[in-house]
Amino acid sequence: MTDAFNWSDLMARAGLSDPFAPGTSRKNGRAALRKLVPLMELPAPNVAEIHDLTIKGADGNLAARLYEPVDPTNALTVFYHGGGYAFGDLDSHHRVAQRLAAISQSRVLSVDYRLAPEHPFPAAYDDAVAAFDWALNEGSEHIGTDPEKMAVAGDSAGGGLAAAVAQARREHIHFQLLIYPLLQLAETRKVKPKMLEGHMLSTQALDWIRDTYCGDTSPMDPRISPLFAEDVSHLPPAHIIAAELDPLLDEGVAYRDRLQAAGIPVTHELAKGLPHGFFNMTRVWPGADKHANTAFERLRDGLTS
């Protein structure tokens, strides 16, 4: 399946527009992602309850969704969806968030942060921090969670947001789960270009994400590229899961090395033969659900340690 898989071809066969293709409108790209993702995912394990919430963002209210596990601990994980800062929402990552809650036994707050290009940087970052602050300050009253047992998690661009929030609020975060995270946008030309094309992210897509999200801000800004933060000391323990067929593979390894050099407990798992985005592809990629479940078990263990 690895050789045959091509993201653009899959979108075309489904009659949908590739979100990152030239000429695709934001509306069509976002609709395509919402339609295609559920077709590629296995059903998530059951949770006890799911609630749609309104929480405080950086510049007004944000939609959020709370997942209550069947047998919850008192931990809370704030989850940031992927989508290149321009796509994705609560629905596109519904099953991922539900699986995360069910396996980790942590309540999960999935956040619908503002998207570019309507809201370029720093909107997504500011909303991500504001959502975490809301969960930290209001979680015990409104959700019943322990502010001493807070985690952040995210995939792709959401993984970059989770890492940036962990840097901004390091003293309040117990664990961070970074799922094939987008940790920098300063260098989009990768060493292994063969791995870029056809597997969800291409050089063209990364250039588009950088130009759409960063605007006039340097991509070296650590709020955009947490890999380049000067100070990574005293960060919470982390688990980083990487995909072998992913242009973001090397930066995940580099961040692991930086954290380890700073004395931060960090584990790193490589999902061999899998592409970027495979947590949303558990139906079509053998082993994807196993790797996702293992990552969520790491979060569970990290929150209970």
The CATH class is identified as Alpha Beta
Averaging pLDDT over every residue, what do you get?
90
Radius of gyration: 17 Å
Q: How would you classify the helix and strand content by structural class?
A: alpha/beta
- Enumerate the strands of the largest sheet in spatial order, edge to edge or round the barrel: 1-2-4-3-5-6-7-8
The CATH homologous superfamily: Alpha/Beta hydrolase fold, catalytic domain
The protein's oligomeric status is single chain
Order of helix and strand elements from N to C terminus: HHEEEHEHEHEHEHEH
Find the count of extended strands (DSSP E, 2+ residues). 8
Largest sheet: 8 strands, mixed
Give unreliable regions as ranges.
193-198
Query: Based on the structure given, which CATH architecture is correct?
Result: 3-Layer(aba) Sandwich
> Looking at CATH, which topology would you report?
Rossmann fold
Helix content: 25-40%
Q: What is the number of domains?
A: 1
Morphology call: globular
What's the arrangement of secondary structure elements?
Layout: H1 7-13, H2 26-40, E1 49-57, E2 60-68, E3 76-80, H3 94-104, E4 107-111, H4 123-142, E5 150-155, H5 157-168, E6 175-179, H6 203-214, E7 238-245, H7 249-261, E8 266-275, H8 288-304
Parallel strand pairs: 3-4, 3-5, 5-6, 6-7, 7-8
Antiparallel strand pairs: 1-2, 2-4
